[in-house]
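Good morning N.,

You mentioned wanting to compare the apo and holo forms, so I went ahead and generated the holo version with nicotinamide-adenine-dinucleotide. This is what I fed in:
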Amino acid sequence: MQIDLGGKVAIVTGAGRGIGREITLALAREGVITVALDLNSTDLENLSREVEAITPDAMHAVCDVRDADGIRSIVDTASENLGGIDILVNNAGVVGDALVDELDEGTWDLIQDVNVKGTFLMCRAVIPHMKRRGSGRIINAASFAAISPRVGSIAYATSKAAVAHFTRGLAGEVGPWNITVNAYAPGMIPTAMNHFAELPDDKKAELLDTLTLRRWGSAADIANLICFLSSDQASYITGTLIDVSGGKLATQIPSEAYDRFNAYGEEGVDPA
Ligand SMILES: NC(=O)c1ccc[n+]([C@@H]2O[C@H](COP(=O)([O-])OP(=O)(O)OC[C@H]3O[C@@H](n4cnc5c(N)ncnc54)[C@H](O)[C@@H]3O)[C@@H](O)[C@H]2O)c1
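and this is what came out, ligand included:
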């Protein structure tokens, strides 16, 4: 299968580091002209040097996804300069851990504002451009927390469930204009958001034990999905939440399979 995204224009939020950085680079490598947005200007500058070596027309801008006026101005400028917007990846997100009775309102508001309202504001600004062109791809960062919340992370899980629901609702609204809307549920991908790479070995093993594939994911695993969802080959997929979590949600106790595998030694094959 040949994915042809050459010449398309994509806006990626939270592009400065982690998964968003890899999504932006992967799209650029597929010939997409990217508009990278993030709060962090240093990360953006570093990224843009790499991206512009691949696609010189690429743009980047410091942008807070909670800033409706700033978003409109950047989206309108990008559309005018680059001839439209084909793809929007709402990847920016924040997390905050606390039990409900210890959670402060500021943290709750920040998480809902960035993860949910930010997604809404970006879509609101981009959709008129996609409607005019009669096509578009919107791809939103959810999480497996949208389906199964983690203890101590309820504000984040609630926000991601809202993103998943928003994705379905919006898919229904914009279907007639040939705009698809999907969400991705990454996990577990070590980034600066979750600090998985810095955990002690026993804690790492505990987390990996919850996965059917028992290994960390990579940002490239998500970027590959984004490239596919952006392509013509994915034109009949909309309103979905796609889980890229090494089978986090597949089985109840994945270690039961590993116990059997290990019973046969290193190769996991019955010598008989
Ligand atoms: N890493 C994982 O395993 C995992 C799992 C589930 C979901 N996710 C989701 O995937 C997305 C990317 O996660 P990541 O691990 O790369 O996180 P990350 O923290 O490494 O990157 C998030 C990026 O978003 C930017 N950002 C934060 N607030 C912003 C704002 N108000 N406006 C603009 N940009 C803002 C940050 O500056 C940062 O560059 C997030 O939405 C996250 O919730 C990640």
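The chain has eight helices and seven strands.

Happy to go through it together on a call whenever suits you.

Best,
F.
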